[in-house]
Amino acid sequence: PNYLLVTGSDQRIVKVNRSFCQLFDEKERTLLGKKTSTLIHFLPMVAYGFEQPYRYTDYKGKNYYIQWGMKQLYQNSGQSFTIYFGNDVTEQKKNEQLLLSSEKMKVIGEMAASVAHEIRNPLTTIRGFIQLLRERNPDSAYERILIEEIDRINQVLKELLILGKPEAKSDELPSVEPFDAVDEVNNINLL
User: Crossing angle of helices 90-136/141-164, nearest 10°?
Assistant: First the structure.
């Protein structure tokens, strides 16, 4: 809703709309004729300025973000009026905060994926050397325990990588990079 308050040249209220009354939990008949200086909740909003939305917490504890503006009107008869108008931008603020939170989560996911890859690469090398040691001494339980622990770390890293993956779009098909199967098999034999 939009909020509206009109004052005369003497700063007495001559008109308010229903939204303004509801916001401040006031009746129109009690506001008319009062000076704006008696509105203790309204004055800080005007003093805050008109560039940024003002955060107001009502008597129920609900937060509103209101972008206030002001316009002077002069009539030919010499009377002047000041119109204060407020635009409720609460939903817009909530959406901005939601977008910001979403962007932060995206960055955290990307960082998690990056860290997981950096840990996974040397871990694969370590696992390969432990497997070589195990082949030389098959009766040793240490190598088996080390491999189990590395596999547990790899499982945690897989979960971090899942967190870092952007959600797939339904209209895109996953791309498959070509590879040489013989080279891959030869690389496995080297380990």
Answer: 160
Whole-angstrom Cα distance, residue 147 to residue 155? 12
* Amino acid occupying residue 155: Q
Tell whether the torsion through CA atoms of 47, 52, 53 and 57 is positive or negative: negative
In three-state secondary structure terms, 66 is strand
Residues 6+ apart with CB under 8 A from 187: none
Compute the distance between CA of residue 9 and CA of residue 191 in angstroms, rounded to an integer. Answer: 89
Over the stretch 104-126, which tens digit does the pLDDT of each residue have?
A: 888 888 888 888 888 888 898 89
- Residue 157, helix vs strand vs coil: helix
Both tokens of 28, joined, read 């129109």
CA 13 – CA 7 distance, rounded (Å)? 4
Q: Structure pTM? A: 0.56
Give alpha helix (H) positions in 72-180.
90-136, 141-164
Cβ–Cβ under 8 Å, residues 79 and 102:
no
Token pair, residue 161, equals 């990588």
